[in-house]
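Question thread 4412

I'm putting together a teaching handout and wanted feedback from people who do this every day. The idea is simple: show students a protein as raw sequence, then show them the structure tokens that encode its fold, then repeat with a second protein so they can compare. Below is the first pair exactly as I plan to print it.
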Amino acid sequence: MTAAAAWPIFEAALVDRELVAERTMAFRFAKPADWTYRPGQFIDITLLDPPETDAEGNTRGFSVSSAPSEPVIAITTRLRDTAFKRVLQTMPLGTAVRIEGPFGDLRLHHAHRPAVVLTGGIGITPFRSILLEAIHGGGLPYPVIVFYANRRPTDAAYLDEIRALASQDPNLTVVPTMSRPDSAEPWEGETGHIDASMLQRHLDGLSGSIYYLTGPPGMVSGLRTMLVDAGVDEDDIRTEAFTGY
């Protein structure tokens, strides 16, 4: 590992890839023994001498979806039709990429106040890392309620895993909602987009919460407006928008 500027830069080999939802894939890279990060942080990945490229270039930023206690560096992404994503999907296992980071400061607060996570699609990825590390490290110190929006159950990466974590920790509640459920996979949970009435149904009697919004920029902006209109203090809203969704 070498250091440049104030963050680590190193090469890591692709060791595995796996579909974790429809058109959503996890990529796992070898993790250097001396590299550390906090759950919720992100990294930049650069392809080295890729067989194709495009105007978006060879570098992308990704939240780390693995927890620090896991033996690999994992990222999870939608499979958009770009040169970068095509190369990621087809390059041989063992191919090295350049990783820079970690960056970012998305983390659960220290104050003993409930946390409400409003997210959609791959916006769940940093919270997979955060929740897995916290629960396996002794448990959440206060209630955490995760509202997780997708079009259909088949689109919902890590939903079963997050639900399993909720069964292990009474402080974690998961409220998945589907905007376009279909008969191919019956759905009996919430439907529609995350809105004020949905929050009221599940947060009734829960006060003093800090809100975390992750997902595509339009979703994050809309949720922030909804919370402010509902009287939530802007200082109690933390956001992270995912571009290049």
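The second pair follows. I'd like the answer to focus on this one:
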Amino acid sequence: MNSDDLRLFARIVKAGSISRAALETGVDQSTLSRRLAALEGELGTRLLHRSGRGVLPTERGEKLLEYAESIGRLLDEAGAAMQDGDGRGPGQLHIAAQPTIASLLFVPLARLLKARYPDTRLRFVEGLADQLLDKLAGGDVDLALIYLPEQGAVQSDVLLSEGLRLVLPAAHPLAGEVVPVSALRDIPLVLPSTHHGLRLQVESLAVRHGFAPRIAVELDGSIALIKRMVAEGCGGTLLPEAAVRDEIAAGLLRSCRLSDPEVSRQVGLVLARNRVVPDGLWTIVRLIKDEVARLVESGDWPDAQLERS
């Protein structure tokens, strides 16, 4: 038995399920189950009652939780006492996001973090999801905010869902602010290539409605250039309202809500897999979640709904 095992056990109890604890810690669910089983085997007692609704501590588990929390607090106090400047935050912090998310979040988040941790060296990285996941796996960034689903992003904390709009040139003849998904069959589209999440989502949507999307242009790496191509009549595209509101205000583009069904995608916060997240990072994660909630609730993140955990 060691402090890491006790921390994991406490997180599982607080989360109420092993799957939720896996998302919160960034540790694979199978790894958590294995370490919990080893802890129960070492102590010779069952620590959790398991059911389809989650987990609850046994009587022995509740007693161990008291020790785990006490030891955790003591270790946190020791770590804080040893740091150079209590409460000054991490020495450096690297945060990554896809372009639309970055355009909404990076500026207010930078102001917030610099006010809270003036001595922390901040680095923000913007890129495509697969690039950011590679950086995360390589340790080049501490956390990433990406659109889901995305290949490889198996450990994520879903923050919000955001509507996807059909984006067209301002003078496009398609009438109405709301159009059915089936209307996409007749519209040439400007989209990323096949390995990107947005393209996969469009193709999956088309398959469910019995048609193949008409791809006019494939373009990777630049939302700005996709929007310009649409404005110049090269085709339509699918983007969130937040990505095109400036161009709509300028009269260059217009957007239509898709119906039958409405189309949306999720924004997730992704941490490194197979690694217990350092406790110091949880305050940063909480600040990010609070800032995302503020943007959504104020309307500064349009057409978005918070995911309530």
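Top answer:
Good format. For the second protein you could add a caption like this: Residues 59-82 form the longest helix (24 residues). The radius of gyration is 23 Å.
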